[in-house]
Design brief:
By secondary structure, this protein is an all-alpha fold. It is 79% helix and 0% strand.
Length: 217
Amino acid sequence: FFWLLSLLVSSLLWYAVVPLRSELAFAVPFSVIFQEAFRYLFYLVIKRAETALQSVRLQELAAKGMIFDRLAVAYASGYGYGLISGAFAIVNVLSDMAGPGTIGISGHSQGFFTATAFLTLAIILLHTFWGVVMFTSLDKHGYQRIVGPIVVVIAHMLFSCLTLINRTKTPVYAISLVTGYLLLLATIFYTIVLNGVTLNSFRRSFINVRETTTPLT
């Protein structure tokens, strides 16, 4: 819902400012800023809702299963952002694929479909991790409270601008795909570090999983 609100605001700006209608590169930064602003707004809504729930007796909350899991909320928020963003990114391509060759990319490689599919997957996963990074950072104190949201905005801006490369007359899809997935790996690593996961803790968890799944002889 909040992503759709950001899309609505972006559309209103696109309609009001004439240069935005013809220059996609000019519209992309504003769209990214609005998306992240509404992501932050959603965080504030969740924060207020959690504060209200905490004023109720803990026993009542536990009985109703209403104790907030902040990481789960952050994950669900990011995943929802990613799904709706990915749906809007690929729905027109899927629609044109069913038509009589009216794809709108005159003479371009058929790799356009594959590249679009992989980029859509990347943006879904990126939004998921961006949601976790944003929520986790804002819950912390000190420099991480500022660095996290900045990292999310910069990464989102970079990925969105990368897709503009595919709009050239001779697009090289490998550039956007490789860079996009490197950005995804970097985001995953940053998310893991931000949540306090270390190599030792990961090793201990892996050992515990193996011990619990080892069959009795």
